[in-house]
Amino acid sequence: MATDRRVSRVSSLIKREVSQMLLHGIKDDRVGAGMVSITDVDVSGDLQHAKIFVSIYGTEQAKAETMEGLKSSVGFVRRELGQRIRLRRTPEVVFLEDTSLERGDRTLHLLNQLQDARKEEDEYIEPAQDD
Predict the structure, then answer these.
(1) How does this chain assemble?
(2) Contact at 8 Å (CB) between 86 and 102?
(3) Mean predicted confidence (pLDDT) in 27-36
(4) Which of 40, 62, 95, 108 is most buried as measured by Cβ atoms within 10 A of its Cβ?
């Protein structure tokens, strides 16, 4: 088992290298269908598995196409990681869609709606007290 510090360093290296591959290395047109950014990389303690969380901006169709393109390029990404990062074994790579940004945006929107509703309620109650 690798130390937490080592896992963190490998995770950040994978994130940096895969980001570079998204910009310059992956030639699949489906990957360019939506704007892709890597939000997080989760590497297992034995450095054998890497979950790469991606956030995709665009329509639902563009998101689906982009995920298909990323999943089909897993072999290329793993081979490139093996060449760019010096590890005994190159981790198995899995791309997962990260929807946390969308959930956070939706939550903020709901909180803002509640705040606006409370302001309207307070404004409605205050004039009634003046009578």
Answers:
(1) Monomer. Binds 30S ribosomal subunits, but not 50S ribosomal subunits or 70S ribosomes.
(2) no
(3) 74
(4) 95
Q: How far apart are CA 14 and CA 39, in angstroms?
A: 12
- CA 112/CA 120 separation, integer angstroms: 12
Computed from CA positions of residues 61, 66, 71, 73, in that sequence, does the dihedral angle turn out positive or negative? positive
Q: Report, as an integer, the average pLDDT of 40-53.
A: 91
What pLDDT sits at residue 34? 65
Does pTM surpass 0.90?
A: no
CA angle 106, 16, 34 (to 5 degrees): 45
Distance CA 52, CA 119 (A): 42
Is pLDDT above 60 for 130? no
Report whether pLDDT(128) > 60.
no
